[in-house]
Amino acid sequence: MFNSKKLEPSGVDTTDNASTEPDKEQPWQELGLKQDEYEEIKKILGRRPTSSELAMYSVMWSEHCSYKSSKIYLRQFGEKVTPEMKKYLMVGMGENAGVVDIGEGLAVTFKVESHNHPSFIEPFQGAATGVGGIVRDILSMGARPIAIMDQLRFGAPTHPDTARVVHGVVDGISFYGNCLGLPNIGGETVFDSVYQGNPLVNALSIGSMKHEDLKLAKASNPGDLVILFGARTGADGIGGVSVLASETFESTGPTKRPAVQVGDPFAEKVLIECCLELFHAGVVAGIQDLGGAGISCATSELASNGGKGMRVQLKNVLLRDESLTPEEILMSESQERMCAVVPKKKLKEFEKIVQKWEVEYSVLGDVIDEDRLYINWGHEEIVNVPPRTVAHDGPVYERPVAYPSYQNELNENTSAKLPRAKNATELATQLMRLIATPNQADKSWITAQYDKYVGGNTALSMPDDSGMVRVSEESGLGVALATDANGKYAYLNPYEGARLALAEAYRNVAVTGAVPRAVTNCLNFGSPENPEVMWQFKEATAGLADACLELGIPVTGGNVSFYNQSGDVAIYPTPVVGVLGVIDDVARRIPSGWQDDGNNIYLLGTTYDELDGSAWAKDIHDHLGGQPPRVDLAKEKLLADLLHGASIQGLIESAHDLSEGGLGIAVLEASLRFNVGARIWLGDILDRDDIDQTAALFSESQSRVLVSVGREDDVKFQALCEARGVPCLRVGVTDATSGLVEIKDIADLRLDDIRQGWSAVMSELFG
Amino acid sequence: MKIGVITYPGTLDDRDAQRAIRLAGGTPVPLWHDDDDLKKVDAVVLPGGFSYGDYLRCGAIAAKAPATKEVIRLAAKGLPVLGICNGFQVLVESHLLPGGLIRNEKQHFICRDQKLRVENNETAWTSLFEKDQEILIPLKNGEGGYIATDDTLKMLEQENRIAFRYVENNPNGSMNDIAGITNERGNVVGLMPHPEHAVEAGFGPDTPTAMRSGIDGLLFFESVLKMVVNS
User: Fold this and answer.
1) Domain span including residue A34
2) A744, A601 in Cβ contact below 8 A?
């Protein structure tokens, strides 16, 4: 296949040309490379790169693919770990997704990834392909994808452009996820004007497998065939990673829409089933998904991971558009494609399976025992590089770091000066206002567009605190997943903000009765070329790594998204942290709201006067400043252990984490969950914790959970709290008949009124 | 008792339908769209999903699949057939049931727990329900708006061929609140909501008793099993 009869030059830039025309001008700058990076490529090759090589290096050395600005900080996630933390870790960082042992011979793989810039330019396709990409990552580990989640951050809800983005993104996720048959089990939706010109669209997927089905994407056996299968290669998404994901948006300049990929979930659904059948039949040595950087990435990474080389005939790539140049083919990010490494003697079996699923394929080349990636265009050689230099040995930067000039002023501007509510009426009004702000309001306008039922294993989904899916139908073994990030906290203090994100996700998993086991993250930041942003990144990664070490759960992988800013204004640092928990039987899971009458309501944990960065400060007083709430991770751990113990003994009927909006919002949410009211009193909190009513209702102190306990379990539950040293205060009783949330000395709020305000917001804003 | 579940490319709820059959006490038999051998099953379920990516029109391509052609042939002889969501769309495209299904009134995909009234409890798939019984099962579709000509609607009403109607809330703009219909003989039933997602406590819709405890969907499958045993 490498000997073509026609030997006339086709006009493409060959390795021969590169030697004979060493001084040819090359568009390295347009492709997003820096001068010194271009020089480095020349040094590696001992000549100028061909235009195809330049295309490959430019996409693979992009910020998005190479992690060149973040690498030195991400290392600590691998370093700040104890042997105990690695106990359940089957595959750690650096692979397509981390793999965690959940017992019974089963494992799960999960990861969250950003698709921010494409989702602003073309919200529908951007968000849809974000889901498609993360699902293929999970699939390439040998796992069956079993659920997805989405973490969305939009601009101000009333800004004229926000509806365009919201509709497009939600439709895109709904379209792609629903067509794949993956239940959407949760996520986050946040509105803040800081995300106006740069919304965040992160998508998470989780897959399950038997231990023995684990696959690593590598080409380590010379002679094996390299096969591209799935959708044909087209002109969509050319240079997406370098042009879109690795640059700041400018308001002027040409539209970048051609760099957004276009998704076909049907093709992906078929590809999933096809790949799982290929894995099951044992006909593939490894499968790599094609996402960012397309064929450039798949070929160089497979070869580099296997420590071998590869010979590829690029003319064999099946095209949607015959006019594509080799450079475009190498950079295309067309969706729904996979690259398999197949032993020659398994080719027939491979063909039979892909033909059954009516999936197109073509043999691109083979694995060779040489540290070289050769790519030919017909008889002409257009790439001849050491694969590792493309895939793994990209540039690494230690970017300048500077303490932000605004930081001290921001931290000194605390919420202490804000007026506290003067009387009961004002408190009640503030509470009713908060529950009806876009950030606290009912999100079912979004989640009702997602299929949460498909698969028949969803044990928890929105609006409960975690998503939960059953993995084993025989035993009921399952996993819980929660993701969190509070950009306001991280802006006030990125180190603490990252710890707080982890603490909240950890707590959200714990309240379901699951035991937190592993962490993933998607670190959304501004431009790494801005030293103040780099300081935020340095602080946040250190905070997260330290906190993981303290809680004893490892980071299994993740994603960094830089350049999230419009013009000079960066978004709040937004480290989205996902925590995976394991539950031995999902039948034991705890809902977030109370359903029975006459149960006691307890507040676990201590409330401090912590209103800086709170929803109360922002949404009632339009204030952001001071320091975020403190978090004592030892207390979080104690609390999680208590919840697990109580759930094993069946002592808790409901448990809801306290976060944004504090106790006030938590009480309303727990009542709205099953439309069952409550009588609440704050007096004991005020006395014990020495705070005022405003703080009691709205403080965002950490390590707090609201639980309801049946009367028959009361004594046991209190004894358990005491034995474990978790502060526990009875603050109310559930009431299934009154239709009210009565907060003593403050107000009797009708559940219907609360629901009215809470549920109307999203549809009033977005139709 | 063997109940077949057809998998088309893009079918999503096939494993759920198989589980529902198992929990009802039957033996699920996976059937492949490209194979006209229905393996001598006693009944067939066309499950939900996006067969062939919903290209052309929902269910239009699946209606021409070899397995579907065999279903059409055997349905005429009385084989019980249940089409759920995309399966309902296939039945309509196959002309086993009249009318059509269009994009939801509000243009969005919608997933919710839906109350239905059983209007006809004399079909192969509804015999264990009480007439006018209200049941709760999940609904999830993008193109679930039932439409038909005035004559067809009149005929369906007069011949008692409306199997289920939406109660309290018509989620997709279906004419006459129609959620599901049956053929004249009562062996073929199609509906948009998903009974196979309400068959196992813990994974169904929320009920006033407990979270996700709704299992009203189980009776669909138990009904057909009972009918097959009795014949």
Assistant:
1) 1-61+216-395
2) no
Say how far apart CA A496 and CA A488 lie, in whole Å: 11
User: pLDDT tens-digit profile of B190-221?
Assistant: 999 999 999 999 999 999 889 999 999 999 99
Cβ atoms A208, A108 nearer than 8 A: yes
- CATH number assigned to the domain with residue range B2-230, chosen from the 4 options 2.40.128.120, 2.70.70.10, 3.40.50.880, 3.10.560.10: 3.40.50.880
Q: A591 to chain B: which residues are within 8 Å by CB?
A: 211
Verify whether the Cβ–Cβ distance A269 to B110 is below 8 Å: no
The CATH number given to whatever domain includes residue A758 is 3.90.650.10
- How distant is the Cα of B35 from the closest Cα of chain A, in angstroms? 11
Q: Which residues of B are catalytic?
A: 85, 194, 196
Where residue A745 falls (left for φ over 0; alpha for ψ -120 to 50; beta otherwise) is left
Show residues of chain A in contact with B66, CB under 8 Å. none
Q: Is A115 in the active site?
A: yes
Q: What is the pTM of this model?
A: 0.95
The amino acid sitting at A221 is: N
Beta strands B162-166 and B110-118, pairing class? antiparallel
Q: Do B140 and A586 touch (CB under 8 A)?
A: no
Span A220-234, pLDDT tens digits? 999 999 999 999 999
A179/B50 CB distance under 8 A: yes
In a domain, A132, yes or no: no
A644 is catalytic: no
Cis peptide before A463 (omega within 30 of 0): yes
Provide the pLDDT confidence category of residue A9 given band limits of 50, 70 and 90.
Answer: confident
A65-102 pLDDT tens trace: 899 999 999 999 999 999 999 999 998 877 778 999 99
Residues of A in contact with B199 (CB under 8 A): 456
Residue of chain B whose alpha carbon sits nearest to that of A266: B53
Strands A478-484 and A458-460: unpaired
CA proximity to B7, closest of B45, B42, B40: B45
Residue A612, in any domain of the structure: yes
* CA neighbor of A237 nearest in space, from A106, A142, A330: A330
User: By C-alpha distance, which of A144, A473, B27, B188 is closest to B18?
Assistant: B27
**For chain B, what are the domain ranges?**
2-230
In sequence order, which ranges of A113-161 are alpha helices (DSSP H)?
116-121, 123-139
- CA gap A630, A500 in Å, rounded: 8
**Residue A248 maps to a domain:** yes
Residue A519 lies in a domain: no
Q: Residue A726 corresponds to which amino acid?
A: V
Q: Closest by alpha carbon to B45, among B172, B231, B209, B195?
A: B195
**Minimal Cβ distance to A270: which of B9, B15, B212:** B9
Give me the residue from A269, A452, A453 closest to B10, CB to CB.
A269
Phi–psi pair at A532, nearest 5 degrees:
-70, -35
Domain count for chain A, please give it: 2
A720: left (phi over 0), alpha (psi -120 to 50) or beta: alpha
A743 to chain B nearest CA, in Å?
Answer: 24
Return the DSSP state at A425: H
DSSP for A565-593 reads EETTEEPPPEEEEEEEEEES-GGG---SS
CB atoms within 10 A of CB A343: 17
Distance CA A109, CA B112 (A): 29
Q: Tell me the per-residue pLDDT of B78-106, one tens digit each, with 9 for 90 and over.
A: 999 999 999 999 999 999 999 999 999 98
Which of A180, A448, A470 has its CB closest to that of B110? Answer: A448
| DSSP label at residue A163 | H
Nearest alpha-carbon partner for A300 in A631, A44, A542, A479: A44
User: Which H helix or E strand runs over A108?
Assistant: strand A106-114
What are the start-end ranges of the H helices in chain B?
14-24, 66-75, 86-93, 150-158, 218-230
Q: How many CB atoms lie within 10 A of CB A666?
A: 21
